């Protein structure tokens, strides 16, 4: 698939990541990982922040488990993990309600009126559904809003099995994991670069022959 033959109308399903695609929330969450972990000290908080950036799209559950067991070398205690997750949710919820929304959603929805739209995110599913409802974004995604603790691979497999995702389908993402999950599930993929935090992006995109566009507006021909 190239820019010349990318026809958004060929798809029966459009799957969107949330952070960095629909919402400009990557930096918010990156800082929140540091802020929540700084109770253990700067070095460990920075290590978690770096791990988060290197593993975009993976759930907060997995990242805080990694903090406790790998970075800190501790035994996993569920009550400690829950406290970290609760603190993280408090940090990000307010910001998600006010951060920038991607331009062009209305126009893209009109252009792809026959396609089923879904959110498949590494963000917490309950939090996502609350934020999207409060911001009036949930009606775009009639196929559902899905997130952690299930992984994107699990969600995609489940929704394909349920015929909620029908082919051909396109995944719009901004992380390496988004691409890997889409590719494994048999979905076409377009990388949105506007808000991504992937390091050395151009090198990776070229090496992987991945189609990339700046933003959702590109899909309208802008």
Could you characterize what this model shows?
There is one protein chain. The radius of gyration is 17 Å and the shape is globular. The mean pLDDT is 93. α1 packs antiparallel against α2. It has a six-stranded parallel sheet. It folds into two domains: 8-24 and 101-220, HAD superfamily/HAD-like (Rossmann fold), CATH 3.40.50; 27-96. α9 (201-208) links the parallel β5 and β6 (212-213). The chain is built from nine helices and six strands. The longest helix is centred in the middle third of the chain and has 19 residues, at 78-96. The protein is an alpha/beta fold and 222 residues long. The chain has helices at residues 26-37, 42-54, 60-71, 78-96, 105-111, 125-134, 152-161, 176-185, 201-208; strands at 13-16, 116-124, 145-148, 169-173, 188-192, 212-213.
List keywords for this structure.
222 residues, Rossmann fold, 2 domains, 6-stranded parallel beta sheet, 9 helices, 45% helix, globular
Write a compact overview of the structure shown.
The protein is α/β, with parallel strands linked by helices and 222 residues long.
Adjacency order of strands in the biggest sheet? 3-2-1-4-5-6
What is the SS-derived class? alpha/beta
Helicity, as a percent range: 40-55%
Shape: globular
β-sheet strand percentage: 5-15%
CATH third-tier fold name of the largest domain: Rossmann fold
In the CATH hierarchy, the architecture of the largest domain is 3-Layer(aba) Sandwich
Note the gap between the termini: 18 Å
Total helical segments:
9
Largest sheet: 6 strands, parallel
- H/E topology pattern: EHHHHHEHEHEHEHE
| Strands, total number | 6
Q: Uncertain segments of ≥5 residues (pLDDT<50)?
A: none
